[in-house]
C-alpha cells in the first residue's frame, strides 16, 4: 500500500452547510477511501493555505485518485494537492536502486 497526503480546501457551499449543521467529516472520508480500496490514517482540519489534510493508504495512485475525483466532483472540496509519501526504509531501497542505475544515465548538458 502506498501512502498519500492530500491537502485541500472546503468549497463555499461546504462551509455554508457546516455553519447550518456542524459535522465531523472523518467517518464520511474514511468510508469514501475504503470504497476506493484505501484506508484513512489521519484527517486534520488545518489553518492557513489549506483547510484540511488527510493521510491515507491506497493500493495505487489510481485508487487514491478515484476517491479524490468523487470528493472534488461532488462539490464539497477544491484545490486538492496530493503527494505520495515514503517510509525511510522505502527511501533507502530507492537510493540503493538509484545507485545501481546511475552509471547508465547521462545528465543534461553532460
Structure in words:
The protein is of the alpha+beta class. The chain is built from four helices and four strands. The chain has helices spanning 12-20, 26-35, 61-73, 88-101, and strands spanning 2-10, 39-45, 52-58, 77-85. Strands 2-3-1-4 form a four-stranded antiparallel sheet. A hairpin with a 6-residue loop joins strand 2 and strand 3 (52-58). The model has no long low-confidence stretch (mean pLDDT 96).
Task: Quickly list its features.
single chain; 110 residues; alpha+beta; four-stranded antiparallel beta sheet; 4 helices; 4 strands; 42% helix; 29% strand; elongated
Portion of residues within helices: 40-55%
Uncertain spans: none
Whole-Å distance between the termini? Answer: 37 Å
DSSP E strands, number: 4
Which helices and strands, and how do they pair?
Elements (H helix, E strand, L loop, with lengths): L1 E9 L1 H9 L5 H10 L3 E7 L6 E7 L2 H13 L3 E9 L2 H14 L9
Condensed summary:
By secondary structure, the chain is an alpha+beta fold. The chain has helices at residues 12-20, 26-35, 61-73, 88-101; strands at residues 2-10, 39-45, 52-58, 77-85.
Amino acid at each position: 500500500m502506498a501512502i498519500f497526503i492530500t491537502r485541500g480546501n472546503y468549497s463555499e457551499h461546504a462551509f455554508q452547510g457546516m455553519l447550518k449543521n456542524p459535522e465531523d467529516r472523518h467517518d464520511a472520508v474514511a468510508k469514501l477511501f475504503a470504497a476506493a480500496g484505501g484506508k484513512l490514517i489521519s484527517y486534520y482540519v488545518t489553518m492557513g493555505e489549506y483547510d484540511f489534510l488527510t493521510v491515507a493508504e491506497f493500493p495505487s495512485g489510481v485508487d487514491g485518485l478515484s476517491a479524490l475525483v468523487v470528493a472534488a466532483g461532488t462539490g464539497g472540496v477544491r484545490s486538492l494537492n496530493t503527494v505520495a509519501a515514503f517510509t525511510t526504509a522505502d527511501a533507502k531501497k530507492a537510493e540503493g536502486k538509484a545507485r545501481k542505475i546511475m552509471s547508465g544515465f547521462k545528465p543534461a548538458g553532460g
